[in-house]
Every structure is written in structure tokens, then in C-alpha cells.
Please model this.
Amino acid sequence: MEKAVDLKKTEVAIIGGGLTGLVTAFWLTREDVDTVMLEKSCRPGGVIRTFRENGFVYESGPNTGVISHPEVPELFDELEGLCELEPADEKAKKRLIWKNGAWHPLPSGPLEAINTPLFSTRDKLGILLEPFRKKGSDPLESLEDMVKRRLGQSFLDYAVDPFISGIYAGDPSRLIPKFALPKLYALEQNYGSFIRGAIAKKFEKKGEREKRVTREVFSVIGGLEKLVSALEAKTGNERVMTGISDLSVTPCSEGYQLRAIRDGADLAINTKFVVSTVGPYEFDTLFPFLNRNQLAILNKLEYASIIQVVMGFKKWQGMNLNAFGGLVPGKEKMEILGILFPSSFLRNRAPEGGALLSVFLGGFRNPGIFSLPDDEIIEKAVTAVKSMLQVENCNPGLLKIYRYKNAIPQYMHDTPERLAVTDHVHSSYPGLLLAGNMREGIGMADRIRQGKILADSIVAALQQQLILEKR
Ligand SMILES: Cc1cc2nc3c(=O)[nH]c(=O)nc-3n(C[C@H](O)[C@H](O)[C@H](O)COP(=O)(O)OP(=O)(O)OC[C@H]3O[C@@H](n4cnc5c(N)ncnc54)[C@H](O)[C@@H]3O)c2cc1C
Model:
């Protein structure tokens, strides 16, 4: 006897229930577009997850975002009453960089820049010439080459390299600014210089939407998972389908049919649009109809692996933590990428007088660490905190480890080829949209922006279809 299949019909099926999928589903539902979101794990949120324990509120994935697109405050406006954006305290403006056994603040003004031991005298003087240097002409120039050309080796080693570790856990010699840091790339291309571009932008007249792009660090009051719950509540639990396995997609006359298993039962969903928000490493099974060569090109996308060790101290007895955190340049040959101090700039993350820290390890700089057992990695993190933050008796009351194999996609030399294949798939299979952090940015703000743009494009396409059908 044939097994019963639960058959559903919808207009949009979203694969993956992380931030990208949730934001897309939220905006589509708000526009009354019939939508379902299919998530493999038993909860939505993807890498975003907040825990509460013994007076600590901590994140196992991302800790903070940056208000780098207007879509971020606009989303929080929509979620008013369910979750509230928490701007980071002023202390978050101070970033520390490790050099020769000590922390030094990353200069935030000209006077600090002159006095800092982070950069060489030659590069400090050379920066005066930055506005007059020729603009780059190779769109595939690496970040390392771009920074060396415009700012000098010491700026690469003690500003850009640690900054890139903090965002991409990546390697500046392999990342391509046009894709990895498009705003920085545009400064040089549009204004001929980073400095001239930054000054011009400061004085440019901004529209109301642009004014909301403050570049402030943000979290959510009570933790980032509050954003996940708010998006889920607004979208409607019945549209957020978790615990989905064996998902695969087939093109059919009305669009696409998705087959999967949920609660041991077969599920089939007929839909006009499919939005994928997952990494290309899932595509072989999700989209078996895609051409093998195309799949191979999409699968060239490399990811940095990250390990996050969270530590909570009920009573902090180490150095003053009045900063966002500290980053460690590759040149310094340390075991860790950096340490974030969330309780210094976010409210109620640790008991009064205590501290919450997140130590990051791994990345492109030290991929081998990922294969070590948990206790060895924790030992490295504790040793780093003890010596670098001057904690004599380093016995954190809270100690957790989280591993992410495919943590951050790296936008490298293969990006143009991958984007071309993605465009080709979109034109060959109308209604299939390959999105997520494989393109258009890795930060939470980029994910929020992409979700809105995806939803808008689907709403426009559905309206167009309706007009054509009425004719
Ligand atoms: C450790 C870490 C720290 C970070 N720190 C920051 C930070 O400080 N600031 C910042 O802005 N960004 C940070 N990021 C990046 C940012 O968190 C992510 O880019 C963003 O949250 C990704 O959201 P997403 O929805 O695109 O992907 P994900 O969150 O990865 O969600 C994808 C979802 O798809 C599901 N899925 C996968 N395969 C299938 C399948 N076959 N069927 C159904 N479902 C499937 C997964 O279970 C997952 O829930 C960090 C990322 C990591 C990993």
C-alpha cells in the first residue's frame, strides 16, 4: 500500500529558518503572501541562540550586529512590543589590539593615531599621502594588496588583519574587497581615496532612511533570540515548520514540488517560489536537477570554522574591561582570534560585579584547532584569558564551548564565477532563488536587508503575474 502524503500548497517555500529565512518569511506574511519556512533543526534561528544561566545571558553564535542598513531599524519598528533593539554602550567604541604582550586601543582620532605603537612611523607619515594615491584598477585585487598599496604594511598587520579576523575569521590575502567589504571598495572607486571618501560621506546630504544607518553596534534586550521569537510569532507558528528532514526540490508545471519528512510522515509542498537560505554544501541533495558543473562551482565557496568559548565570572578580578573586546593580529602568533566583552557594553549579561566573555578560536588562521577535543580547546581559551586579561585565579563559573564548521563564507577569487552561476540558475529556473550568506554579506544586518529585498522582489513578481492573468 502507498504511504499517505501530507500535500500542501503555498506560494513561497523558504528553505532554512535562520535569520535570512525568518526575515523573508516575516515580510512575505506581512504582505499576505502564502509562505512556509522549512527548517531542519527543532528550532528556528539558525546560528542565533541565547542562553540564560546563573545570572548570565549569553549567545552561542553571533553576539552583536551593526546598524549598517536602514532595513535593520525598520525591522525593529515592525516588531515593536515583541522585541527591542539594544544599542551598545559607548564603551563598545573602544577596540583593543594585542601587540608585543599588551593591549593597545585602536586609534579613534588623529592624536591617538600619532601616538599609537600599533603602526610604524613610516606608515603614520605615509597616511598623509593616502588621499593622493592612485586608485586601484583591479576589481579582483586582494584586501591585503589593497591595504598595503594605500596604507602600508603595519596598518595591514595591526588594523585590517585583526578586524578581518573579528568579522570573517578570514585571511586578507584571499578576501576580495569588492565582495567582502563592498563599502570600503566603493570608497576608493567613487572618491579615489578612503580618507577623501570618508570625509565626503560625512558631509553628504542624507535622506531620512540613510540617516538611520548609524553604524552603531546593536543587540536585542534580553538576547538575540528575542528577535527570532518575535519574527516567529509575527510570521505565525504554523508557517514555521521545524524538524524537516530529507528535503529535496523538483521543478513541476506549477513551479516546484518539495518533498520531505516531518514527524516520520511524508510531506509534499507545491509552490511557485523556492527561496534557499542554506549553504551550497546542501545543494546536491536539495536541488538534484541542477547541472553537476554548476553545483561544483557553487560548492567552491569556502567557509571559516569558528569555535566560541563562553566564560562567565560571578566576580571579575582581572583587568578593566571597558571596551568592546580585544583582537589578536596573526603576526602575534597567539592561539586565539580575539575576546569579546559583552557584559561591558550590553545590559544584564552578567551578575553585578561579574563579567561575561566570549573567546574566539580557529578561523582561516588556525583551522587545525577544530579537530582538537573540547577540553584542549577550553584549556587554550582559559590560558589566554588568564594571561591576556590578567586574571590570577581563572576559574569561570560558566564555561561553554560551541563549534561551527561552516561558520563564515569567504568571498574570495571564485566569487564572480559563483555569482554568474547563481544568476544563470535564477534565469534557467524562474521562481528559484539561491540566497543566504553565500552572497550579499555575512553580517546580521546584511541578512536582514537581503530578507527584505527577497520578499519585495517576490511580492512584485506575484503582482506582475496577477496583472498578466487578468489580461
Ligand atoms: C559563531 C558565529 C559568530 C558570528 N558573529 C557575528 C556577529 O558578531 N555579528 C554579525 O553580524 N554576524 C555574525 N555572524 C554571522 C551571522 O550570524 C550569520 O551570517 C547569520 O546569522 C546567518 O543567518 P542565515 O539565516 O543566513 O543562516 P543560518 O543561521 O546558518 O541558518 C540557516 C538555517 O538553515 C537550516 N538548514 C540547513 N540545511 C537545511 C536543509 N537541507 N533543510 C532545511 N533547513 C536547513 C539550518 O539548520 C539553519 O537553521 C556569526 C556567525 C557565527 C557562526
Summary: Residues 145 and 274 are 39 Å apart (CA to CA). DSSP finds 17 helices and 19 strands in the chain. The chain has three domains: 5-45+222-301+412-470, 52-91+302-409, 119-210.
